[in-house]
């Protein structure tokens, strides 16, 4: 029998109790599948919590958006899990450099750089060691995974990427100069370096999902294929279909 572990966002405590009343909770170490109850933010927290533990995660939506989640229903959970389809994702690894040294963090959605003050940021963008934008004047810029391409990246008018695409999206946030630059689609093997210009006058923070580093001087971003996470989706409602449908929504 499939052993389950349930975890929930604070607002989903009632649903957590209902699920545990129907199914024994094997605990995080002994479970075959982790069932996460909450919204997309909580799914990201759960992915980070189970990095390296080899456990697929099945999310059920009890949040506001739930793009990464399945529909919440208490009945027929084991049947749904038996028929579920897999989506394998890889995170970005951020190396943020600042006065206190280098800080590393993982991001399953995106790494974003954001201005900290009223003044626009000035950022040089290097791709594979070559300067592609010598000075981007902007509110910020981000690198997104395919899984994260429908999140902040989409709000910033970046491209939606199929979940199995070996690509990353590089997207400016409210760019002032160059005004017509709308971003780029990169190979998943690309390494991106952001150099902060006039960092004392125009401070910038770097955020990997929900982990923030303030006052950075440079940030390196690359996909880490040594880390794989598996998410489970109801048959016929997998992440590929959701991403495709998002491109035809009004």
List the helices and strands and how they pair.
Elements: E1 4-8, H1 13-22, E2 33-38, H2 40-49, E3 57-61, H3 77-83, E4 85-89, E5 92-98, E6 101-107, E7 110-115, E8 121-127, E9 130-138, E10 140-144, H4 152-155, E11 167-173, E12 184-187, E13 191-197, E14 204-208, E15 211-213, E16 216-223, E17 229-233, H5 239-246
Parallel strand pairs: 1-2, 2-3, 3-17
Antiparallel strand pairs: 4-17, 5-6, 5-16, 7-10, 7-14, 8-9, 8-13, 10-11, 11-12, 13-16, 14-15
Task: Please name the defining characteristics of this protein.
16% helix, Rossmann fold, 250 residues, 6-stranded antiparallel sheet, 17 strands, alpha+beta, 2 domains, single chain, 5 helices, Tumour Suppressor Smad4, elongated
The CATH homologous superfamily of the largest domain is named Probable inorganic polyphosphate/atp-NAD kinase, domain 2
Helical/strand content category: alpha+beta
Strand content: 35-45%
Strand line-up in the sheet with most strands: 6-5-16-13-8-9
The CATH architecture of the largest domain would be Sandwich
Q: Write the H/E string, N to C.
A: EHEHEHEEEEEEEHEEEEEEEH
Average per-residue pLDDT, rounded, comes to: 94
Question: Treating each run of at least 4 consecutive H or I residues as one helix, how many helices?
Answer: 5
**CATH topology description of the largest domain:** Tumour Suppressor Smad4
Instruction: Please bin the fraction of helical residues.
Output: 10-25%
User: What is the 3D form?
Assistant: elongated
As an assembly, this protein is single chain
